[in-house]
Amino acid sequence: MNSPPVPGHPPRSRSSQVALAALLVAAMACQAPSLPRGPQGIAVTGSDYAFQLPDSLQAGTTVLHFTNAGKVDHEMGMALLKPGVTLAQVMDRIKGGASPDSLLDGIVGILIAKPGVTTLGGLSVELLPGRTYALFCNFQDGPDKPPHSALGMVTSRTIAAAP
């Protein structure tokens, strides 16, 4: 069925109406493709003897950057805990003189920085939702001194699902 003629305009044919409708549908369906999200960057600061980082971390590709704001050398080691394992359990195992390896799915990586330095590179990791990661520094200020983790330079984060 043709539409009524519009004064001053030639009448549209059925085929031109169908073509116009198809063009409008196609234009509405064509949206800009969503670009892949780049890795999230997380700044981690180490001090004498603690880590500062966001309380909540999102799942997904992440690059952690480490700054040593302390007066002594520090490392930022990262480990993935086995499901259901807590940081307290890991620390209890270490305090008891045993290896925590059976409580870990593995070490993700380590960044090392001198005092007042930010590492030149970052630690890239695919953070898994619902999993817990521990950050630690096992450096010692001397052979008879405790590791920095025993002085409080250890923390963990359970990863939230990506938005």
Topology:
Layout: H1 14-29, E1 40-47, E2 50-52, E3 60-68, E4 74-81, H2 87-95, E5 104-113, E6 123-127, E7 132-136, E8 154-158
Short summary of the structure?
With 163 residues, the protein is α+β, with helices and mostly antiparallel strands. The protein has a single domain (40-158), classed as Immunoglobulin-like (Sandwich), CATH 2.60.40.
Q: Roughly what is the average pLDDT, rounded to an integer? A: 86
CATH superfamily, by name, is Cupredoxins -  blue copper proteins
Radius of gyration: 28 Å
The secondary-structure element order is HEEEEHEEEE
Note the main attributes of this structure.
single chain; 163 residues; alpha+beta; Immunoglobulin-like; 4-stranded antiparallel sheet; 8 strands; 15% helix; elongated
Structure description:
With 163 residues, this protein is of the alpha+beta class. The chain has helices at 14-29, 87-95; strands at 40-47, 50-52, 60-68, 74-81, 104-113, 123-127, 132-136, 154-158. It has a single domain, classed as Immunoglobulin-like (Sandwich), CATH 2.60.40.420. The longest helix has 16 residues, at 14-29. The protein is elongated, with a radius of gyration of 28 Å.
